[in-house]
């Protein structure tokens, strides 16, 4: 009897500590959008990576470095559509993309903006939008947003990476750059560009960011991840949530 009890005890310990046999290792294709998502030392990093890592931990799933790739946005989107067990860390959920992926979120809100050198244009006057030349990231929804705002298609210059789009406005080859506020200013800081010389000249719209999974993922897993995210946002006795603590690592709350 003693031997049987000991065997059961060992089995409980084993089951309690072993990684689930059904745990999934996801391919993660990332276009740098600091500090929301980027690759550092081969690992998925940033706000989105921290939130999704916390969500996946509940089921033993992960985004291992050996399955993490930094790529331009068009390749990120294409490879995720083609690769089972893959995820995009942060993207806008649009009607055109709705059926292509399965979604968890939103986990953050970002502004789509036009940033230009201070005083270069009176963007309050919409009549100036058709005459400006704007750089942005290729393959994103920014081009459509700019066109809807009144910027002619032929005045939009698309770059493969955000760094190149920022270089174009800094060198005066274009009048402005359009993308998310935080990523643009982060790139400028990394390049040693004085951000005080620039301003958010025009806000196109705000966008919720989601995690986009390859469609092969089971609906039950998506529902589990969504439930975990919603529970992460629930405040504890201190009035803060686990979600808040992750966000505040990257964005300090206003005082």
Description:
The chain is of the alpha/beta class. The protein has 2 domains: 127 residues, D-Maltodextrin-Binding Protein, domain 2; 97 residues, Periplasmic binding protein-like II (D-Maltodextrin-Binding Protein, domain 2, 3-Layer(aba) Sandwich), CATH 3.40.190.10. It has 8 helices and 10 strands. The protein has an 8-stranded mixed β-sheet with strand order 4-1-5-10-6-9-7-8. A two-stranded antiparallel sheet has the order 2-3. α4 links the parallel β7 and β8. α2 crosses α7. It is globular and about 55 Å long.
List the helices and strands and how they pair.
Blueprint: H1 2-17, E1 27-30, E2 38-40, E3 43-45, H2 47-57, E4 68-70, H3 73-82, E5 86-92, E6 101-117, E7 134-137, H4 142-149, E8 156-159, H5 162-170, E9 176-180, H6 181-190, E10 198-214, H7 219-232, H8 242-250
Parallel strand pairs: 1-4, 1-5, 7-8, 7-9
Antiparallel strand pairs: 2-3, 5-10, 6-9, 6-10
Helix pairs in contact: 2-7
Regarding quaternary structure, what we see is: single chain
With strands numbered from the N-terminus, the spatial order across the biggest sheet is 4-1-5-10-6-9-7-8
The number of domains: 2
Specify the biggest β-sheet: 8 strands, mixed
Decide which structural class fits the backbone: alpha/beta
Radius of gyration: 22 Å
What is the 3D shape?
globular
Annotated CATH architecture of the largest domain: 3-Layer(aba) Sandwich
Q: What would the average pLDDT be, to the nearest integer?
A: 89
CATH superfamily of the largest domain: Periplasmic binding protein-like II
What share of residues is helical?
Answer: 25-40%
Number of DSSP E strands: 10
Q: Tell me the strand percentage band.
A: 25-35%
């Amino acid at each position: 009897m003693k031997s049987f009890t000991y065997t059961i005890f060992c089995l409980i310990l084993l089951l309690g500590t072993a990684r689930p046999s059904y745990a999934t290792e996801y391919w993660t294709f990332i276009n740098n959008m600091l500090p929301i998502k980027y690759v550092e030392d081969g690992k998925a990093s940033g706000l989105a990576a921290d939130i999704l890592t916390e969500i996946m931990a509940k089921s033993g799933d992960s985004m291992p470095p050996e399955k993490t790739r930094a790529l331009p946005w068009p390749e990120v989107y294409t490879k995720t559509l083609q690769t089972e067990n893959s995820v995009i860390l942060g993207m806008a959920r649009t009607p055109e993309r709705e059926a292509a992926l399965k979604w968890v979120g939103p986990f953050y809100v970002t502004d789509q903006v036009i940033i230009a050198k201070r005083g270069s244009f009176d963007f309050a006057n919409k009549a100036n939008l058709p005459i400006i030349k704007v750089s942005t990231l290729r393959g994103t929804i920014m081009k459509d947003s700019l066109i809807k705002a009144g910027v002619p298609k032929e005045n939009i210059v698309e770059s493969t990476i955000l760094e190149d789009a920022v270089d174009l406005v800094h060198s005066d080859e274009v009048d402005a750059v359009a993308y998310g506020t935080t990523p643009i200013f982060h790139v400028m800081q990394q390049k040693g560009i004085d951000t005080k010389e620039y301003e958010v000249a025009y806000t196109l719209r705000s966008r919720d960011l989601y995690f986009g999974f390859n469609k092969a993922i089971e609906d039950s897993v998506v529902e589990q991840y969504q439930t975990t995210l919603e529970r992460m946002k629930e405040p504890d006795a201190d009035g803060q949530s686990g979600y808040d603590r992750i966000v505040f690592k990257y964005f300090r709350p206003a005082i």
